[in-house]
Amino acid sequence: MPTSKPSPTVLAVIPARGGSKGVPAKNLAPVAGIPLVGRAVRACLGAVGVTDVAVSTDDPAIAAAARVFGAEAVPRPASIAGDTATSESAVLHALDAFEATHGRTADVVLLVQCTSPFLTSGEVAEAAARITSGAADTAFTAAPSHGFLWRETADGAVGVNHDKAHRPRRQDREPEYLETGAVYAMDAAGFRTHGHRFFGRTAVVVTDPARVLEIDDPHDLARAKALAPLLDEPATPAFADVDAVVLDFDGTQTDDRVHLDAEGREFVSAHRGDGLGIAALRRAGLPVLILSTEQNPVVAARARKLKIPVLHGIDRKDLALKEWCEAESIDPARVLYAGNDVNDLPCFHLVGWPVAVGSAHDSVRAAARAVTATPGGFGAIREIAAWLLGPELNTPTPLSN
Q1: Which of 54, 65, 173, 345 fits a 20 to 30 Å CA distance from 8?
Q2: For residues 80 and 88, what is the distance between their CA atoms, to the nearest angstrom?
Q3: Which residue, 150, 152, 120, is CA-closest to 47?
Q4: Cα 244 from Cα 133, distance rounded (Å)
Q5: 105-142 as b/e: b if 16+ CB within 10 A
Q6: β-strands 108-112, 176-187 pairing
Q7: Which tens digits make up the pLDDT trace of 47-67?
C-alpha cells in the first residue's frame, strides 16, 4: 500500500527584541492583560497547520513569557539583535536553531510580528496554507484600500494611484492592498536561497482593515488597549485554567461606597451571591484569598464570614501576592485576580488571568484579560465562579486516569 505523505513542518518565528526606543519593553506590554509576545504566540498556536512556534529574542524576560504561552525561545546572538539587524536574519537564525535542535527540516517558515496585536489564528493559517498547498512561494497579510494617494512635488501635489482629473467612484475602482506587517509566509528552501521574504509567486492574504494596527509608539499602544474589548474574541477562564482565585475587596466585592455612622464607623454593602460563589470555589478545592490595601476591620470580618484567608493593609499588593504564591507553591500564571482600580494593576501584570469587574476604572478594564458583565458589589464574584464552575456552581468531577 502507498504510504501517506507526511504533514509539512510549518515553523512560525516571532522576532521579539528586548530593546525598543518608541515603547520601552514594547514586546512585553500588555493588551487586554496579555503581553504582545503572548498574543502573537497564541495566534500562531491556534492556527491550523502551524506545527511549531519559536520566539527569537535577546531578552530573558521575553524568553520566559514566550515559554509561559507555549512557544520555544531561541536566544538571539548580539550580532543580529541591534537596531540595524533585519527580521530576515532573525528568522534564518531561528530556522537553523530549530532544525539543529529537532533534527528535522522546516517546509514553511513564517515571520510573525508582535506589533500587530489583533492578528488572528485564521490569518496565520491562511498564510501558511498558501505555501503548503503549492499556490504560492510567499504570502503576506494586507488590507484592501480604495484610498487616493498623493505625493508632493516642486510643481505641487500629484496623484500617485489616480489621475486627479478623473475621480472614479469607489465601486468603480479595483482595490489596492496595504501591507500590514503582521505575517509573512515563505517556502523555507526558497527563503534560504533568496534571503528575503518576497520571491517567486507571491499571494495576498486579505485582512479586515478594522483590525490593522501596528504598534510603534505609546499612542499606538493606547489605541490597542482601547480597541481590545471591541476586537478581541470574548474569553473567560475555565476551571482547568486556574489554580487559585485572589480578590480585591473595595469596589470588587462591594459597590465602592462607604456608609458612616455618627462615631465614624464604616459600613459597606456586600452581595450574598458573591458569598455563594466563594463557597462554591472553596468546595471545588480552589484556594481563595482576599487581598486589600485597606486596614479595615470590615475586610477581616468579611473574610472570617467567608472562611477564607485575608491580607489587608497591604501597600504593595503585587509583592504580597507574589510571596503568597511562593508560600502556597502556586504559579502566578495560573492565578485569577479580580480587581477594579489602578492599585490592582501591578497584580494584573503578575497573574495569568487579570479580571476586571464591570464597574472597574477604564484603565483596569483595558488591562484585563476578561471583564465581568456585573458591577462590583452586585454579584461580580458570583459571575466569576460561574465561569469556572458553570451556572449551577457544581464542583467539577475529577478526570479518571
Answers
A1: 65
A2: 10
A3: 120
A4: 44
A5: ebbbbbbbbbbbbbbbbebbbbbbbbbbeeebbbbbbb
A6: antiparallel
A7: 999 999 999 999 999 999 999
